[in-house]
Specification:
The chain is mostly helical. The protein has 4 helices and no strands. The longest helix has 40 residues. It is flat and about 50 Å long.
Length: 124
Amino acid sequence: RTMNKRDAKKFEKFLLEERSRLTRGIQRLEEETQFDTTGDHVADIASYAEVGPDNFERETALSLASSESERLRAVDEALRRIGEGNFGTCEGGDKDIPRKGLEAVPAARYCIECKTKIEKDGSL
């Protein structure tokens, strides 16, 4: 019923690589969004308008970092499930998640039926 150890190791390796990639991406986004907090930032309207695009870019980067952080949490949860021996088992109905589904979304927590029900009804 549970995934064999060899397959679990393959998914674990992939998830660890994905975790490393996400972590690097988040760190890079955070570094790019840091701004100079020194000096006097009292600005007139003209200089505020010039800063506007920078603020938009910063907000976009922070939004991306937040999204990447959410994906990182999902990867960490999948790695935890591998460690506990229940990776690949649907959390909603105790069914196996098909291998093709895990290959498409390795951090998947639910089988297609449960995921569809959650999206439709908001819960299981």
